[in-house]
């Protein structure tokens, strides 16, 4: 007989909106739960002011729309949907809570995000002719509230929601389930998981090609085109062009013979000058949030990689009063780090041995640190990644070299190295700035999101300056012509009180 969960399980979702919006969203959820496999009925109980869920296997759950006990400790107009699973199997509980987590955003929440993303949300005003109506769009972008606004803008620019596909990167963002729910339930957009990337690409190309259209790829990490070119080469001609947001994505397409134009927001002047500090600051802030009881001031830190992000991470850690060392295999970058006053060395092992960092932040994007280096760390050290997925540290090597590997929940994974220290890989090696967080503020990321959409329009309109392969110079020209950087300056420059003038 299947084991029943004990004690009762509880999950709560905070939503912002009017009382009517909260009631409507809770009612939609109850109706959707009623259709969930294994649910026998959902009945409103007037006495407890909650929906009672009866499962086919005899289990039960409850759904209640509540309010915070201390309104002053929550955002204004916060409502709390509380789901309790009181009896039933673990499998039934998982299905129940999966449905509960997938709540679309309220109109109030969307309006707030739109107001925080003025550049992205007003893109359709620039192109009244809906230039994206003739293409499909395949997106692999981070699942945060800002992404919903970008999608709304792409739809306003003419993309048919039936010709849009989103790949959920399966990072543990703060609102990942709600973003997915909004895309599916409010727009009918196909959402595929990263683990099913190839199937998602095949499904997308079949739908879009059947409508006589081709596709623009908007990627964040170089996931789509390498898969197409290596595993689905016969479908390469379906794609009009690629917009790439990250340097790690650029690295993954390097060496590939790209048969289409790459609009490189990742390498643009716009992104390099504005976004890098924000990413670094978010990474350090989220690291400190996960380690509230640690005292890191005065402690040793090591930054791996002195590119755009690594440079800023080193500076932020220095401002946090840590003693910062930098390692980069590129001698020019190593010289730059040395001349900025950071401790450096040509040998990573020797630098770890002498500096003894308790905090190691990887900004390389590929296996920058493994068991050999980790053995040299002091006790209770932490490894932190700022790059896509879990590619920064050699986690398989760390596991093989450990006598015990412990899941520390939201904190990450602990590795007791044989004959060495115990270390913790924060966030299980995934990018720390997205770990149960929104990373950059919406106003900060607005310019880059708008730049991604500008790239999609340029590719859809077959701008003759965009040729197969990298187009860094053309990307910079097109972004400058779009006027979004000018608008950003008007919003946050000296005329808006953002500087001394």
Automatic annotation (TrEMBL):
The keyword NAD applies. Pfam families: 2-Hacid_dh_C. Residues 275-439 form the S-adenosyl-L-homocysteine hydrolase NAD binding domain. InterPro entries: Adenosylhomocyst_ase-like_sf (IPR042172), Adenosylhomocysteinase-like (IPR000043), Ado_hCys_hydrolase_NAD-bd (IPR015878), D-isomer_DH_NAD-bd (IPR006140), NAD(P)-bd_dom_sf (IPR036291). Keywords: NAD, One-carbon metabolism. Transmembrane segments: none annotated. Gene3D superfamilies: Adenosylhomocysteinase-like, NAD(P)-binding Rossmann-like Domain. Its cofactor is NAD(+). Belongs to the adenosylhomocysteinase family. This is S-adenosyl-L-homocysteine hydrolase NAD binding domain-containing protein.
């Amino acid at each position: 007989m299947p084991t029943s969960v004990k004690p009762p399980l509880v999950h709560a979702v905070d939503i912002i909106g009017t009382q009517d919006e909260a009631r409507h969203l809770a009612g939609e959820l109850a109706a959707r739960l009623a259709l969930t496999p294994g649910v026998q009925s959902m009945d409103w109980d007037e006495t407890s002011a909650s929906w009672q869920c009866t499962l086919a296997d005899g289990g039960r759950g409850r759904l209640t729309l509540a309010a915070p006990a201390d309104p002053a400790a929550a955002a204004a107009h916060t409502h709390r949907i509380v789901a309790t699973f009181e009896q039933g199997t673990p499998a039934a509980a998982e299905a129940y809570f999966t449905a509960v987590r997938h709540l679309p955003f309220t109109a109030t929440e969307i309006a707030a995000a739109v107001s925080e993303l003025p550049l992205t949300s007003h893109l359709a005003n620039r192109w009244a002719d809906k230039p994206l109506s003739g293409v499909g769009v395949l997106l692999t972008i981070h699942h945060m509230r800002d992404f919903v606004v970008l999608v709304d803008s792409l739809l306003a620019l003419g993309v048919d929601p039936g010709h849009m596909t989103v790949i959920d990167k399966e990072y543990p963002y703060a609102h990942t389930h709600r973003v997915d729910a909004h895309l599916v339930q409010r727009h009918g957009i196909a959402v595929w998981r990263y683990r099913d990337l190839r199937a998602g690409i095949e499904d997308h190309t079949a739908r879009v090609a059947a409508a006589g259209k081709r596709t623009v790829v908007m990627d964040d990490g170089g996931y789509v085109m390498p898969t197409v070119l290596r595993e689905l080469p016969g479908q390469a001609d379906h794609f009009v062009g690629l917009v790439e947001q990250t340097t790690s994505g650029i690295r993954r397409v390097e060496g590939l013979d790209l048969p289409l134009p790459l609009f490189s927001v990742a390498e643009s002047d716009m992104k390099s000058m504005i976004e890098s500090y924000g990413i670094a600051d978010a990474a350090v802030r989220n690291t400190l949030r996960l380690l509230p009881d640690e005292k890191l001031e005065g402690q040793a830190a090591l930054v791996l990689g002195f590119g755009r992000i690594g440079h800023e991470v080193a500076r932020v850690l220095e401002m946090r009063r840590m003693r910062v060392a930098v390692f980069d295999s590129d001698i020019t970058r190593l010289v730059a780090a040395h001349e900025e006053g950071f401790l450096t060395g040509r040998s990573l092992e020797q630098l770890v041995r002498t500096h003894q960092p308790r905090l190691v932040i990887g900004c390389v994007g590929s296996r920058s640190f493994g068991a050999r280096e980790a053995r040299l760390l002091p006790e209770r050290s932490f490894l932190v990644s700022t790059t896509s997925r879990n590619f920064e540290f050699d986690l398989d090597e760390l596991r093989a070299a450990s006598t015990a590997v412990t899941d520390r929940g939201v904190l990450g994974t602990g590795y007791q190295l044989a004959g060495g220290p115990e270390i913790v890989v924060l966030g299980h090696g995934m990018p720390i700035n997205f770990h149960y967080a929104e990373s950059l503020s919406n106003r900060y990321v607005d310019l880059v999101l708008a730049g991604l959409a500008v790239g999609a329009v340029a590719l859809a309109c077959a701008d003759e300056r965009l040729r197969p392969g990298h187009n860094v110079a053309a990307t910079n020209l097109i972004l400058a012509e779009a006027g979004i950087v000018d608008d950003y300056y008007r919003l946050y420059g000296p005329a808006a009180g953002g500087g001394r003038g």
